[in-house]
Amino acid sequence: MQFINNMLLDMELDPKLVEYLAIIIKIILIGLICFVANFISKKIVIRIITRIVTRSKVKWGQIILDRQVFRKLSHIVPSIIIYSFASTFPTYQSTIEKLAIAYTIIVGLVFLQSLLNAFNDIYQTFEISKVKPIKGYIQVVNIIIMTIGFILVISNLIGKSPLILLSGIGALSAVLMLVFKDSLLGLVAGIQLTANDMVRVGDWIEMPKYGADGDVIDISLNTVKVQNFDKTITMIPSYALTSDSFKNWRGMQSSGGRRIKRSLYIDTSSITFCSEEMIEKFLKVHYLSDYIIQKEREITEYNAKNQINRDNPVNGRALTNIGVFRAYISHYLKNHQGINQNMGLIVRQLEHSEHGLPMEIYAFTNSVEWAVYEAVQSDIFDHLFAVAPEFGLRVFQNPSGADLRKMVEEPNNKDLVEERSY
């Protein structure tokens, strides 16, 4: 730098002009050195590192490259050069050094943030990340690092010790608590969610209050991201999962069976005792033949033992079409390939209502997949709706417009037939 000053003075230029020209030339040279150093670090050094990482078999190496960890670190080279040449400008040396240090701190913060994000991406490649996500903790560390970096930058620029600023933060603690309220609540909620294993990435959760009904795709410090089945995204505050109730379907998914709990409403006016013709018909049904034989034997023995007169069907025991139908459903489900036979299976009658007698099926499918579950459930009820009339039963349904129109047309048709007969 002294050589530049001497060269300009040898040209017999005005001393003031020499001073300005020397500064301009020095700035250009320093800028050129920074440019060359940055070019070498990015175009040569980083390319070499990229080639080495690409050729290696380390899986997480590519994640570090995708996060541009080394590229962001390379920005520190120009700041070190500028800091080294600060003494070239004695008048502004202190200011240049402070700005260079501040820039170095900022680059370091960006580098650490990128490194932490890369660490989180690497952690997510392991199965344990779905059970114990750490994204919330990474965000907390980022906040702490950014806060410390901000304090260091300010203390460097004003030339004061960071401890002075830290002591002043104590007075601003109430303001900080207000500003970072959601983050603090999210941190506590994240610890509870992880420690109690309440929710994982991939869980199907249902939270009507927030309109969430779908799979958890991300758990962060402040929010839990849920992709609903209509492909919309719902953001739920992390602390809401600990303060409000929600349904997690993980237990169903891991059990290997999904529950069917649906009723078939029977018109009570169609319920009756089984006649001899009906019993003979039921004996030919594959799932009922053994049941009918056993029940007929039990009923005959009971009535004979108690000397019951069966001339009146009210006396003693007798088969009913609704009872036989219930037994048929039970045997049908026990032989259905889509039903999990190792889990609960009940066919029961519920309380009678204005809609008829509910015949509820309580069973579990073999598959927890939605499409398979719906297909099995539909197949079962398709069959039951079709076979109910074979037992002399009618499925209840409120009268429709067609039913009312038929009731009106039938008397008119009857009158027309009578007129023609005359």
Topology readout:
Elements: H1 2-10, H2 15-55, H3 59-66, H4 69-73, H5 76-84, H6 93-123, H7 128-131, H8 135-158, H9 162-171, H10 173-179, H11 181-195, E1 204-207, E2 212-219, E3 223-228, E4 233-237, H12 240-243, E5 247-248, H13 250-255, E6 259-266, H14 276-283, H15 289-305, H16 321-334, E7 346-349, E8 357-364, H17 370-387, H18 401-421
Antiparallel strand pairs: 1-2, 1-5, 2-3, 3-4, 6-8, 7-8
Helix pairs in contact: 1-2, 2-5, 3-6, 5-6, 6-8, 8-9
- How much of the sequence lies in strands comes to 5-15%
- End-to-end span in angstroms? 132 Å
Q: Structural class of the secondary structure composition?
A: alpha+beta
Number of strands: 8
The helix content, as a percent range, equals 55-70%
Principal-axes geometry comes out as: rod-shaped
Radius of gyration: 41 Å
Mean residue pLDDT: 81
What count of structural domains?
3
Number of alpha- plus pi-helical segments: 18
Walk across the major sheet and give the strand order: 4-3-2-1-5
Q: Detail the poorly predicted runs.
A: none
Largest sheet: 5 strands, antiparallel
What is the helix/strand order?
HHHHHHHHHHHEEEEHEHEHHHEEHH
